[in-house]
Design goal:
The protein is an alpha/beta fold. It is 43% helix and 21% strand. The strands form 5 sheets. It has a 6-stranded mixed β-sheet, with helices on both faces. The chain has a 6-stranded mixed β-sheet with strand order 14-17-18-12-19-20, with helices on both faces. A 3-stranded antiparallel β-sheet has the order 2-1-4, with no helix packed on it. Strand 19 and strand 20 form a beta hairpin. Helix 3 packs antiparallel against helix 4, helix 7 runs antiparallel to helix 9 and helix 9 packs across helix 15.
Length: 595
């Protein structure tokens, strides 16, 4: 077996009054695809910094293969300290080759001459991605790489990483991103780490098995240990069972929405007549909105019913937030009309999120210093309400500064959901949330009695929460599809409306003309055409094997079967790697022939 590219041996790190990590071993080998998962505050970002050599250890050691490059894509890259995005990308002794970085930036649709101080979150993230990828690392460490990216950029990054020759370790709240790319999982839990040769797609099943085993052990131990394991049982087993019921209910709601949707070519939800006065929340008819010469929304008709969960998706700059502002009455349309129920009481949770006031306690934030809070007409003690948001009642009088970023996000959600409302507007709600808080947000949305409008680039989040999506392509056109993101993806019929930003579409149109002849041999073309399906089949076979191997009782029950599945999975992984390499080789040949 080849030596790892970077490894940690028996490491320990003190943070605050005690050990954050101790006795931890980790090895990252060539072409590893690792999902790093753990509770908020478990030390995931710190672990990436240790792997990158940026954090000094209190015990143990880090080793790295001579000459290997380990590059960290930070969650908050220091872009604003540079005059332009170009200055950020090419600063330092380890600056990448100019033509490589500029080529990646061009594919991401970013202007590197944009001032760093005024660049948007998405522009900063794209610049950081261009710098990291252009350095051609042997190990790439990704800390929430999809934050602030639109679906077009996320899909581009997925394609790049599928062809990436090195290894990567990824922290992400984007389940679809992790499920599509990772082949092994690292679970950082109470200072130690577990590794399973299971991609993130099998992570929940694996952790549920671990939780069940630990719960049995806890029953034999003291109450303190049982209390320590409460989060795990709630966060894995109990929540998973509740979510099955919620997903079933969501499926029923989507079927109802399909029955109310007109022809697929018409971006309009059909009218309903029963009890319309009480059911209709927002009714938009032939709405158009322009800014200057650009049409943002063109002839949109949309009826939002009480209880609907409507997702809005599209590349950055296509007008998603503008559509929300139109529907809620913040701005007026240029033509058409929008009628709203008189009884609307809305709350907005946007991507910036109002800052919590330093020095305030949890009790002040949630209940204005009191002991009770009214939630949906029900009076709850603030301590009990906090349990719903995964907080220990003992934190009531703790100050906001003592909480991590993810915990602060949960407090903000708890504060907003305690307000009286019947319309919930979420503008990029998943940015900067950890998986635990994201799970909680999905639960709260599912239980919310009112109507929900969501702008999000998180495809799995949309699949788990919305009954219909409105898709904007940047030309003013809006397409309405019953279901979630996957339903829209299936409907695209190969037309990649989300694969390009509006700027990229315009550039492609301007450059259109007679294409150069691309000639592979007949056999090569057949091979290239068939490889994606072969790779997908092998990916599914590996995932099925990983789920089987995650059963801790399999080896004891049938060791021969365990060995057979393990051997077959290893062989399939090798075939898959070879197929990916061949696909990359043929794709590169096509690009070269295309000039």
């Amino acid at each position: 077996m080849a030596a790892p590219v970077v490894a940690l041996e028996n490491i320990g790190l003190v943070q605050g009054p005690g050990w954050l990590l101790r006795g931890l071993d980790l090895a990252v080998g060539e072409r590893d695809r690792l999902a790093l998962v753990g509770r908020n505050g478990a030390g995931k970002t710190t672990l990436l910094k240790i792997l990158a050599g940026r954090t000094e250890l209190d015990e143990g050691r880090r080793t790295i293969r001579p000459g290997a490059r380990v590059i960290l894509l930070e969650q908050d890259p220091p872009v604003a300290a540079h005059a332009t995005l170009r200055d950020f990308v090419f600063h330092g002794n380890d600056a990448p080759e100019t033509y490589v970085a500029e080529g990646i930036a061009d594919q991401l649709g970013i202007d590197l001459d944009r001032p760093g101080a005024t660049a948007s979150g998405g522009e900063k993230r794209r610049a950081a991605i261009a710098r990291a990828l252009a350095q051609d690392p042997e190990v790439l460490l990704l800390d929430e790489p999809t934050n602030h990216l639109d679906i077009a950029a996320i899909e581009w990054l997925e394609t790049y990483l599928q062809r990436f020759r090195g290894a990567f370790v990824a922290i992400s709240h984007d389940r679809m991103f992790l499920s599509r790319l990772t082949k092994s999982s690292l679970w950082l839990d109470r200072g130690t780490i577990r590794r399973a040769e299971i991609g993130f797609g099998g992570f929940e099943a694996w952790t549920e098995t671990v939780a069940a085993e630990e719960a049995k052990t806890a029953d034999k131990l003291d109450n303190q240990l049982r209390a320590e394991l409460h989060w795990l049982q709630r966060g894995v087993t109990a929540r998973r069972k509740r979510n099955q019921g919620r997903l079933s209910k969501l499926g029923e709601m989507r079927e109802l929405r399909k029955s109310m949707t007109g022809p697929v070519s018409v971006a309009k939800l059909a009218m309903v007549t029963d009890d319309a006065k009480t059911k209709v929340v927002i009714d938009a008819e032939h709405v158009t909105k322009t800014f200057g010469e650009r049409t943002i929304i063109n002839d949109l008709s949309l009826r939002v019913q009480r209880g609907d969960r409507i997702g809005v998706i599209g590349p950055n700059g296509t007008g998603k937030t503008t559509l929300l502002r139109l529907l809620t009455g913040e701005i007026a349309p240029d033509s058409g009309r929008i009628r709203r129920a008189k009884s609307i009481e809305a709350i907005l949770i946007d991507q910036k999120r109002a800052r919590l006031v330093p020095g305030q306690t949890v009790r002040q934030i949630i209940a204005d210093g009191g002991d009770w809070v009214d939630v949906g007409g029900v009076r709850k003690h603030v301590a009990g309400y906090l349990k719903d948001f995964l907080f220990d009642p003992g934190v009531l009088d703790a100050k906001i500064e003592t909480f991590s970023g993810g915990e602060q996000s949960r407090l903000l959600l708890a504060r907003e959901f305690a307000r009286v409302s019947n319309l919930l507007i979420l503008d990029e709600p998943t940015n900067d949330l950890d998986l635990e808080t994201l799970d909680l947000l999905q639960e709260v949305i599912a239980d919310y009695a009112g109507t929900v409008l969501i702008v999000s680039h998180d495809r799995d989040f949309l699949d788990r929460t919305v009954t219909a999506v409105v898709v904007l392509d940047g030309s003013g056109k809006a397409d309405v599809v019953a279901g979630g993101y996957s339903d829209w993806e299936a409907k695209r019929d190969g037309v990649a409306l989300l694969a390009r930003s509006p700027a990229a579409q315009a550039k492609a149109a301007a450059a259109s003309g007679p294409r150069k002849s691309v000639k592979l041999t007949y056999i090569e073309q057949r091979e290239l055409d068939g490889l994606p399906a072969e790779i997908e089949t092998m990916t599914k076979a590996i995932a099925a094997a990983e789920v089987a191997l995650a059963d801790p009782a399999l080896y004891a029950r049938d060791p021969k079967k365990f060995d057979r599945i393990n051997t077959e999975a290893d062989a399939t992984r090798k075939k898959q790697a070879a197929a990916e390499e061949r696909w990359l080789e043929l794709s590169a040949k096509v690009e070269a022939l295309a000039g």
